[in-house]
Amino acid sequence: MKHLISLIISCFLAGAAFAQKDTVAYTGDPGRDISAFLRAGVYLVDHVTFLPPKKSEREITLENKVNKAMMANLKWFTDTFPQMKEPPGNYYEKLGLTKEEFEEYSKSQDATPKREIHVTGHDSLAILKSGNLISFKGQGRLRVLDSLQFDLAHNAALYKRLILDYKAKESGGNKHEITTPEVGGYTYEYEEGGPGAGNDMNFSMTNYQLMIGKAYANGRLLVIFTALEVDNGKTKIRIVLPFEYDPSTP
User: Fold this and answer.
1) What is the pLDDT of residues 74-102, one digit of tens each?
2) 51, 42, 46, 45: which is closest to 11 by C-alpha?
3) Tens of pLDDT along 109-151?
4) Does residue 12 register a pLDDT over 70?
5) Helix axes 57-72, 99-110, angle to 10 degrees
6) I need a surface site. Which of 40, 119, 181, 219 has the fewest CB within 10 A?
């Protein structure tokens, strides 16, 4: 789920190309920002998905060479290569490329993939405020948000009465705060259970995540809600709901 949200965010940033007045500023203060982002009103929401990045014929040719070389030298790549202490960016003949091709291939892999944002539909979303509590009333696919609330006083989201925490301090950086030159926002999460150390396939788990971010380029909000419920190895609920809207026009 974490990787999925990161991918969706990167797609959203690459697809942001709307020129409009930015009336909702990102300050880095979650209490202030969430209150400003989620203002009471009824909004027209765009459901979005993201098209895969387009690759040039040259990129495809180089990737095919590498894939062919990996299959031909599979044992080396699976057994020997992981044990080597050289930096991962070093050139190896077993990659099936010349040094010049390897440099070209490396640059294409390091480049930020350019994905296109695609609107798949529209629904209306009502945002309601009562004191420090924000609630939602959605139409269509957004009805799942009727069970979602946000508590401004405690900087936490709630789904089905379970608390999705915002963790301001994490080892290695604040992974719950999205701060890049293009977007500012926050992630809230509840997680219980999982496969455990033994990778038991009959595990049970519950994971809910809410991400709210504002793109600097266009002032629109990207909201991503995900829900995963697994009971004894069987998926009961899987929701991935990314949408965007203009917070200045309720």
Assistant:
1) 887 777 777 777 665 678 788 888 989 98
2) 51
3) 776 655 567 889 999 999 999 999 999 999 999 999 999 999 9
4) no
5) 110
6) 181
Please tell me the distance from the alpha carbon of residue 127 to that of residue 212, in angstroms, as a whole number: 14
Cβ contact 144:138 at 8 Å: yes
Residue 56 in 3-state DSSP? coil
Task: Identify the residue whose tokens are 């990129």.
Answer: 59
List the chain domain ranges: 2-52+120-245, 57-110
Distance CA 114, CA 58 (A): 16
For 41, 51, 92, the CA distances from 38, given in Å and listed in that order, are 9, 28, 52
What integer pLDDT is reported at residue 198 of this predicted model? Answer: 55
Q: For the whole model, what pTM was predicted?
A: 0.67
Q: State percent of the chain over pLDDT 90.
A: 35
**Which runs of E-coded beta strand occur in the chain?**
41-51, 116-130, 133-138, 148-151, 156-159, 162-165, 177-179, 183-193, 205-215, 221-231, 234-245
Amino acid code (one letter) for 38: L
Total residue length of the chain: 250
Helical ranges in the chain per DSSP H? 2-15, 30-37, 57-72, 74-75, 99-110
